[in-house]
Amino acid sequence: MKYLTLFCFFFLSFSQVSFSQWLPQSSGVGTDLYSVYFFDGLTGWAVGDGGVIVNTTDGGNNWSEQVSGTTNYFNSVFFISGSDGWAVGGNFSPFLGMVYHTNDGGAAWAVQTDTLPYYLNSVFFISPATGWAAGQMSQILKTTDGGLNWVPQTAEVSDYTGIFFVNENTGWAVGGDPFNTLSKILKTTDGGDNWIAQTAATTNFLRAVFFLTETTGWVAGNEGIIFKTTNGGTNWEPQNSNTTAGLYSIHFIDNNTGWMVGPDGLIIYTTDSGSNWTVQNSGTNSNCSSIFFTDASNGWVVGSNGTILYTSNGGVTFIEEEEAGEIPTDFLVLQNYPNPFNPSTKIKFSLPQTTFVTLEVFNLLGKSVGVLVSEELNAGTYNYNWDATGLTSGIYFYKLQAGNFVQTKKMVLMK
Known about the structure:
Methylamine Dehydrogenase, Chain H; mainly beta; single chain; 37 strands; Immunoglobulin-like; about 50% strand; about 0% helix; 2 domains; 5-stranded antiparallel β-sheet
C-alpha cells in the first residue's frame, strides 16, 4: 500500500512503506513442511507431513510434488549432489523410523529402511557413501554405503533433533527433551564411534546445530536460546536472540551472516556473527521450520500449511518513498546516493505513466543480488532505500525496466 498526500505549490511530501523482502512461493501443497535443502541456486527440495516431497528446478518459481511412496512424515532432507539425496522421518502410531533415497533428483524415491524403532529428525551426508541420521530415543545412526545399511552409534540417552558434520570425522548432535529439563550437545572426532558430551549453560531443549568450521558453530533451541563456540565446543557462549520463542533451524553463509527461524513467522538474522540478532519481517504468521541459503542474498524458508518463503536480498527490508507532486514527463533514473555507500543507499526514478516496473541489483558477474521492485507502479517519482548488509565490497549495478524503457547504472559498496 502507498499513502499518497496532496501538496500545495512549492511543497513536497513523501509516503513511506516498509516492504518485507521475504516473498511467498506456491508450494502446491497444504501440509506442513519441516525441512528445505538447496543444492544450488535453482535446485531444491522441501519435505513434510504425509510423505510430501516438493521440488523446484527454477529457484522456487515453480514447485512440483514428487512421489515418495509413503504417507508417513519426513522431518529432514539432504542432497549431496543434484541427483543423490535422502529424506528421513517416521510415524508416531505405531512408532517407526524411516530413510528414503533417490539417485535421480527425486523422480523416484525408494525406501532404504522403515523398520527403525523410533522416528528420525535429522540427516546429514559428508559424501555419497557416508552419512548420519539422528532421532528419538538416543538414535544416532551411521551409514558408509550410501544408506543401504545403518549402524547404531554409541550416544548418551536423549532425543536428538539435529546433526551436523564438517568432515568425515568431526560432528555434533544436539537434543534433550521438549520439557526443558535436559539439554544435550555431543561431539565426535572419530566419525561417531565415540561421542563426548559438551556443556552449555542451559537445560532448554536444543533443536538446531550449524558449524562453519571445526571451531566455529552455533546451537539454538527453546525459549530463544542461542550459544556460539569458537573452539569446537569446549566452551559455549550465550547470545541474545531478542526473542523467547523457540528456534528450529540455523543457516550461516560466512562467519558474520546467518539466520534462524521459529514459530509465528519468526526469522532473525545477524551480520556480526551473532553479537546482535534482528527480527526480519517474514510477512507471515505461519510457523517457520527450516531455512536454507545458497549465498548471502538467496534463501528459502518452509513452514506450516505448505508455506515457502523466498528472498533475493538476504531478507533485508527496504523502504519505498513515493513523492507526491507533478506527474513526470519522462522516464528517469538518477544516480544512487550516497555513492560509494555503506551499507545502504537510495535509488530514485521517475515514471511518466502507470507501468510494470522491475528494479534489480546485480554483482559484477551479472548475478542478481536483490529485487527491490517487481510490480505495477503509478506514474510518479519513487525513492527506494537498498540495504546491502551481508554483501561484500565491490561494484554493483542496478537496472530499472519499465515497459520498454531500460536503464542500468553502476554503484560502489565500500565497507
